[in-house]
Amino acid sequence: MVDVFVYVVVLNLAIEFVPAIVSEGFTLSLLTAVLLKLALEVVIALKDWMKRRFHAAETWWTQVAAGAALWGLAAGSKLAVLELVALVFGDLVSLGGFASVTALILVLLAARAGVRRLLVAAA
Questions:
Q1: Is residue 85 within 8 Å of 66, Cβ to Cβ?
Q2: In a 3-state reduction of DSSP, which class is residue 26?
Q3: How many other C-beta atoms can be found within 10 angstroms of the C-beta atom of residue 51?
Q4: Gap between the Cα atoms of 89 and 121, Å rounded
Q5: What are the φ and ψ backbone dihedral angles of 24, each rounded to 5 degrees?
Q6: CB within 8 A of 14, min separation 6: which ones?
Q7: What pLDDT score does 37 carry?
Q8: pTM of the prediction?
Q9: Nearest Cα to 107, choosing from 1, 4, 18, 11?
Q10: What's the pLDDT tens digit per position in 40-93?
Q11: Which value, in Å, is the radius of gyration of the alpha carbons in the chain?
Q12: Alpha-carbon distance 113 to 55, whole Å?
């Protein structure tokens, strides 16, 4: 739940300061944050699985294939997030293009990690 609140804050700051990122209201930004949370959890799980496959690879060919798949996931996940948001919300929410959604996702993940560290340190 904390991740969703962090995502809402970051997303609404992005909406305010990045012209390419648009949401028609707070409720839509909250729903977008939930959608981003779900999508990023799936991407992180896939990335971890692919990293394990990369490290378990016994030949150079399987390492190359696993590395290419990992790179493809890194790039393709941004496009998938853009399409998912467009599919679910249509013109009501826009995360801009590849560059803006990449920057947004990096900031979301960094903010999530920072808040988790603060919560662990406070406990």
A1: no
A2: helix
A3: 13
A4: 37
A5: -80, -5
A6: 21, 104, 107
A7: 92
A8: 0.82
A9: 11
A10: 899 989 989 988 888 888 888 888 888 888 889 888 888 899 899 999 999 999
A11: 16
A12: 24
Tokens of 42: 């799936």
Closest by alpha carbon to 81, among 19, 10, 89, 71?
89
Helices (H), the chain: 2-17, 26-56, 60-89, 98-122
Assigned token pair, 15: 């909406």
Structure tokens at 33: 């944050």
Amino acid residing at 12: N
Whole-number pLDDT of residue 117: 92
**CA 46, CA 54: separation in Å to the nearest integer?**
12
Q: What percent of the chain has pLDDT over 70?
A: 100
> Tokens at residue 109, please?
């993940």
Sign of CA dihedral 34, 28, 20, 8: negative
